[in-house]
Design goal:
The chain is α+β, with helices and mostly antiparallel strands. The chain has 3 helices and 8 strands; from the N terminus they run H-E-E-E-E-E-E-E-E-H-H. It has a domain at 2-121: GOLD domain (Jelly Rolls). Helices cover 45% and strands 29% of the residues. A hairpin with a 5-residue loop joins strand 4 and strand 5. The chain is elongated.
């Protein structure tokens, strides 16, 4: 029971922290700003955006992965939503591009983005209504999914750490072998140089 009372407030705090994904920024005329996030594979992503309107100015948005594949795109936006699913572990970015005619003086526009992924995308109110769950049961379900997501994230981070450790060990071994090879080459050249100079000096009768 003590463990339950200890973990429950921690999970609630984590859920509050993870749910804060709203970002606002100013987009200068005829510029491009991108938001990047590293996500695992098979993760649903949803988002909402809103742009302050300025007559004659347009803003496009595009979502791509590190290979340049377009996952979502829409021209001349003002307010709306987007969604996509990640296929593999990758770095994803959502870019907002401002377009202002050359004959018009551009004005800075405010862009607001609210993006959620993974467990955050689930609508637990709808799930509770469909399964006839009480509010406490819905909250427990949400905390259970959140804890599972945290465990999966830690497992993924551990796997990445193991891969990085293996890479470091492999690199250290290669550097060690290269260093030993370089030392052997230098020692061989030094011996060859001494023998060569000795023969040269003997040929010139400078030494006996």
């Amino acid at each position: 029971m003590k463990e339950i009372f200890f973990w429950t407030p921690c999970l609630v705090l984590l859920s509050l922290v993870l749910s804060i994904n709203c970002i606002s920024f100013n987009l200068e005329p005829n510029t491009r700003k991108c938001l990047k996030e590293e996500l695992q594979g098979n993760v649903p992503v949803i988002g909402e955006f809103e742009v302050s309107e300025q007559p004659g100015q347009k803003i496009d948005y595009i979502v791509t992965d590190s290979k340049g594949h377009i996952l979502s795109q829409r021209p001349d936006i003002s307010k709306g939503k987007f969604s996509f699913n990640t296929e593999t572990y990758d770095m994803f970015e959502i870019c907002f591009i401002s377009h202002v005619p050359q004959t018009q003086k551009g004005i800075t526009q405010l862009v607001t983005v609210n993006m959620k992924h993974g467990v955050e995308t689930k609508n637990y109110e709808t799930l509770g209504d469909a399964a006839n769950l009480k509010p406490v049961e819905v909250e427990l379900k949400r905390l259970e999914d959140l804890s599972n997501a945290i465990v999966q994230d830690f497992a993924f981070m551990r796997k990445r750490e193991e891969e990085m450790r293996d890479t470091n060990e492999s690199t250290n071994n290669r550097v060690l072998y290269f260093s030993i090879f370089s030392i052997c080459i230098l020692l061989g050249l030094a011996v060859w140089q001494v023998l060569y100079l000795r023969r040269y000096f003997k040929a010139k009768k400078l030494i006996e």
